[in-house]
TrEMBL record:
The keyword Transmembrane applies. Residues 88-301 form the ABC transmembrane type-1 domain. GO terms for biological process: transmembrane transport. It holds the Pfam family BPD_transp_1. It comes from the Bacteria. The keyword S-adenosyl-L-methionine does not apply. It comes from Actinocatenispora rupis. Belongs to the binding-protein-dependent transport system permease family. This is Sugar ABC transporter permease. It is a multi-pass membrane protein.
Length: 315
């Protein structure tokens, strides 16, 4: 007879080998339960509306519950609509000026508040303060300040004998005013992101550079900027998406798309078509087109910067 091998006295039994597996299952189940509320929220408030927007883009909706399949009719109408093309050009011009300006101002502020000086905490709080106030309130305050003749800014300029232009009543000044207010509102938020990236850079690098005799510009160029590239990539991506899809409250309160449609950005045009004219199908088609633009921009940014490494050759 063949002897049956006996397990050593201290060896774990076969049943004990199942314990790690069951423990991993319990941990996975607990993780799923914790994630379920967020996943449900994303599905209800993001996933389903996105699918509904894509589907509605192929229908003509009259606002009273009537749906008519028109295929690509809304998209054909979109590219033949001069107001849509105008809003698209205005949005692209707006972003070309806004994103670099917001990037530079936020980075400069982050470099400033990174320094140690009295009341630096208060300065950081004041710069971030607009982000904790409703955008509608911010827009109302700025509209009061920019009102012709009786606004705060006009009164200050008038005290020095300067005739102020119509900040919100002239196309070129209205666009400039929207840009200034947007940068003022958003710079504190992106300043904090830059500040977090700066604080992650080891201070030993700066100490070595100082011993080598490097000046402020050389230190920024060879240490700060290369190590800040992942943060810069994140800000470029999120600020573009945020500025293209947000700010409707600000536009509505300050200019309502005027004067002469000079501040009618694509997000405001979508609002007009959907909630002013009841063209929900057409508005959904424009919204789907906007999502495609953002996806192309995101993919291009990932490709050009190698996911935030900006072609450094890092692996």
């Amino acid at each position: 007879m063949t002897a049956v091998a006996q397990a050593p006295a201290g060896a774990p039994s076969t049943t004990s080998g199942r314990r790690p597996t069951s423990r991993r299952r319990r941990e996975a189940l607990a993780a799923m339960l914790f994630l379920a509320p967020d996943m449900l929220g994303l599905l209800l408030f993001l996933g389903i509306p996105m699918v509904a927007c894509l589907v509605l883009g192929f229908f003509q909706v009259d606002g009273f519950g009537g749906y008519k399949w028109i295929g690509l009719g809304n998209y054909e109408r979109m590219f033949a609509d001069p107001l849509f093309l105008h809003s698209l050009r205005t949005t692209l011009l707006y972003l070309v000026i806004l994103i670099p300006g917001l990037f530079v101002v936020s980075l400069a502020l982050a470099l400033l508040v990174r320094q140690r000086f009295p009341l630096v905490g208060l300065v950081r709080s004041m710069l971030f303060a607009p982000n904790v106030v409703s955008l509608v309130v911010v827009a109302l305050v700025w509209k009061f300040m920019l009102t012709d003749q009786i606004g705060v800014i006009d009164r200050i300029l008038g005290f020095f004998g300067v005739t102020a232009p119509s900040w919100l009543g002239t196309p070129k000044w209205a666009v400039g005013s929207i840009l200034v207010v947007t940068i003022w509102f958003a710079m504190g938020y992106y300043m904090l992101i830059f500040l977090a990236g700066l604080q992650d850079i080891p201070r030993e690098y700066y100490e070595v550079a100082k011993l080598d005799g490097a000046g402020p510009w050389q230190t920024f160029r060879h240490i700060t900027w290369p190590l800040l590239k992942p943060t810069s990539f994140f800000i470029l991506l999120t600020s573009t998406v945020s500025m293209m899809t947000g700010g409707l409250d600000l536009l509505y309160v300050l200019t309502s798309g005027g004067p002469a449609n000079s501040t009618t950005l694509i997000i405001y045009y979508i609002y007009q078509q959907a909630f002013v004219y009841g063209e929900f199908g057409y508005a959904s088609a424009i919204g789907a087109f906007l999502v495609v633009i953002l996806l192309i921009w995101s993919a291009a940014l990932f490709a050009l910067t190698r996911g935030g490494r900006f072609g450094d050759g890092d692996k």
